[in-house]
Every structure is written in C-alpha cells, then in structure tokens.
C-alpha cells in the first residue's frame, strides 16, 4: 500500500523533518494496531491474607457457598463466551494496485550507487599508483581513499586489491610504498566494526604478514608490526 499510494506523499515530505516524523508515527500506529488488535484483558487480583491473620480472635467463619448460585454464575459466563466474537481477527482480503514502477523509486538510489562505484575506483587507482611508484598521483587521491574507508565496500575492495598484488609477488615494498599501505590498512581497521571482524579484519591478517620492507641487510619489517594495536 505504501508503494501504491504513498510515493508522491513521501517525495513531497522530503526535507521536512516534522512531516516525515508525523508520517512515521502514523505508520507505527497502524503497525502496532495490526499486531495488537485487542486491548489487554484486565485481570482481577485477589488480595492475599495478611501475615498472622489466622491468630485473630474475632475471625468470621468462611461462608458456606451456595452450589446453585455458583452454577448460575458459571452458566452466565459460558453463555457470554458463546456469543462473544471470535478471538482471531478475520482477515479482510483486498486488492492493492501495483503502484509506480520500481524504477521510479530506484532512481533516487542511483546516485548513491554511482558514488559508491566512484569511491571503489579511487581506491583501486590509488593502490595501483602506489605499486607503480607514481607517488605524486597516489598522494592526490590519498585523502579521498581514507574518506572512502568509512564504507564497508571500500574496505573490502582494499583487501581484494592488496591480495592481487601479493599474488603477483609484489609484497616487498620500498619505504614510501610501505608507509602508504600501512596508513590505508590502519584507516581500514580503525573504521571496522564488530561485524567486520570475521570479514575485513580476517582478510587483512594474511596480508599484514606478507607485506614488508627491508630496513637493512638481513632485517625485514612486516606490516603487522605497525597495525597490531587494533582491537
């Protein structure tokens, strides 16, 4: 029904927070009523006798129950139950028109998808420049790459690209390349959430033990020594 009837209204409300909130409230009420069609039944509570009440001297004896009266009350309640409406709400079937084509709703998301693709392209290009030793080009793209790391797709892209370079036996870096790669990895891990622990962070583990630089003959520094402080 939202897709069929409310698209125009939602578009008209864009930018007006009060109208959007009111609309959300209306929806919430509808959903709540749908899940809770009947108000809660109030239960009659019978009070417990107080402590030590049985020790009182002037205690009234419990009255003898009239069997006929009890049966009459039970019969009354049974009759009421039989005439009561069924507990389950009968479903009203109705035809909902298909509404506007999905493309009309998707066009607003098109820009976001294009932006995402551009970010991934920037990450790929920057890594390529680093490994091709085009440091000036890499420096220009670097701030955009660090911003892109806020998105999971860009973080995933970083792990994939670095993995390709490891497979090409390009894991031994010079000092400048090492610095760039370490900064990217640190930024990537910094923006990781608990959800990324078994995805992005796990994908980086073999990479941080592969990328390295020669500090002097016989001494090699691996990437993990620079990124191991992350949770």
Descriptive account of the structure:
The chain is mainly α and 231 residues long. Among the domains are: 33 residues, no CATH class; 122 residues, no CATH class. Helix content is 61%, strand content 5%. Strand 2 and strand 3 form a beta hairpin.
Strand order of the largest sheet: 1-2-3
Strand proportion:
under 5%
Percent helix: 55-70%
The DSSP helix count reads 9
Radius of gyration: 35 Å
Sheet of most strands? 3 strands, mixed
Are there runs of 5+ residues with pLDDT below 50, and where? none
In round numbers, the mean pLDDT is 81
Q: Kindly report how far apart the N and C termini lie.
A: 45 Å
The total count of strands amounts to 3
Domain SBF1/SBF2: 99-231
Pfam family, one: SBF2
InterPro entries: SBF1/SBF2
Protein name: MTMR5 protein
Structure summarized in a few sentences:
This protein has nine helices and three strands, in the order ααααααβααββα. By secondary structure, the protein is mainly alpha-helical.
List descriptors.
mainly alpha; 61% helix
List the helices and strands and how they pair.
Blueprint (H helix, E strand, L loop, with lengths): L1 H12 L3 H19 L31 H17 L18 H30 L3 H14 L3 H16 L4 E2 L1 H16 L6 H12 L3 E5 L2 E4 L1 H4 L4
Parallel strand pairs: 1-2
Antiparallel strand pairs: 2-3
Helix pairs in contact: 4-5, 4-6, 5-7, 6-8
